[in-house]
Design brief:
Number of helices: 6
Order of helices and strands: HHHHHH
CATH topology: Hyaluronidase domain-like
Shape: globular
Largest sheet: none
Distance between the termini: 36 Å
Structural class: mainly alpha
Low-confidence stretches: 126-137
Radius of gyration: 15 Å
Length: 137
């Protein structure tokens, strides 16, 4: 798979995740994960596990969600807070908060599901590019 195709699929996965289409995000990212080399392969596996966790949560499987969140957190902890220009620290903290709540048998609610934001605060590459153009004008 070409680098540009991997980037496009990664961005598509982000759009799915941020639209709360967690199963779809998982599926798209898995296509990239299958051909990616380390260390990026581990990063992808971590966000795939987090996406799968939220898919399980929405289907009522809180135990599965908690387990997958824990596994995903371990994997993305190896990466910088702003890996790939994304606010990974924020995702990590949100995932930890969710895992703790689920461990206490609490259901935080769909309205509190996290998004993966860019370091500049946007949720999509298009928003990020528009902000850069706007700042440059």
């Amino acid at each position: 798979m070409k680098s540009s195709e991997k980037d496009e699929k990664f961005e598509r996965g982000l759009r799915h995740f941020n639209a709360r289409e967690f199963f779809e995000a998982h599926e798209v990212w898995e296509e990239v994960w299958l051909v990616e080399a380390e260390p990026e392969k581990t990063f992808l596996q971590g966000i795939i596990q987090i996406a799968a966790a939220f898919h399980h949560y929405r289907r009522g499987n809180t135990e599965g969600a908690e387990t997958l969140l824990a596994a995903g957190i371990v994997k993305i902890t190896r990466f910088p807070a702003d890996h790939r220009g994304l606010a990974i620290l924020d995702l990590r903290e949100a995932a930890k908060s969710w895992a703790r709540a689920l461990g206490k048998m609490k259901r935080p609610g769909d309205e509190k599901l996290p998004a993966i934001r860019r370091v500049d605060g946007s949720t999509t590459a298009t928003q990020s590019r528009a902000r850069v153009r706007s700042d440059a004008e």
